From TrEMBL:
This is Uncharacterized protein. The lineage of its organism: Eukaryota, Metazoa, Spiralia, Gnathifera, Rotifera.
């Protein structure tokens, strides 16, 4: 029998829990439009990943998006051992959105129907039946440097808002002198 004094002392470990964790449908990534900033920067990239043509067919990968106090982690449901981590210092922009069809003045000779990704909390989207979306633009420093827009469909509006709130809190706490780490980090 082993004496209590002979049991090795293991170092204490701390489990790091995410601030927010949401199931998403990952639509993929596309280069960000460097000519625009803010909401305008996601319009074109998202149009490549979301069915703006009215086909109502979208392809994506089931995933989990987790926000930690130092960044955002993307884990694929079918491969939970593989993850992509985006340090918060690489964040350029994020938004909760919804696809909206905008009908122009019908009194004109040629009525126009246009589309736009609008903020989830705007009045324009209140009648939309399209799912809530989450967009993330990060600076990529490895392999092919540049800005990339990651596109997600969230399960509901609350999930999209929770992601935005958590990312905003983490981003607000960045050390002003912090350098952008290697991004993304694959593990």
């Amino acid at each position: 029998m082993m004496n209590v004094d002979q049991i090795p002392i293991l170092p204490e470990t701390q489990t790091i829990e995410p601030m927010v964790q949401c199931g998403v449908l990952y639509l993929g990534t596309t280069p960000s439009n460097i000519d625009f900033g803010g909401l305008d920067a996601v319009q074109e990239p998202f149009s490549y990943r979301y069915p703006v043509d009215g086909t109502n067919t979208v392809q994506g990968i089931d995933a989990v998006l987790s926000v930690y106090d130092n960044g955002i982690q993307l884990t694929f449901t079918r491969q939970p051992h593989a993850a992509i981590f985006f340090p918060i210092t690489s964040l350029i922009y994020c938004a909760s959105l919804r696809f909206s069809v905008i009908k122009n003045d019908q009194t004109k000779s040629v009525p126009m129907v246009d589309w736009r990704f609008t903020p989830l909390d705007s009045l324009v989207e209140s009648e939309s039946r399209h799912p809530p979306l989450f967009s993330l633009i990060v600076r990529r420093t490895q392999l092919l440097p540049g800005d990339e827009c990651h596109c997600f469909i969230t399960k509901n509006g609350d999930s999209a808002f929770s992601l935005i709130q958590a990312v905003s809190r983490v981003y607000a706490n960045i050390n002003p002198g912090a350098q952008c780490l290697k991004s993304p980090i694959f593990y």
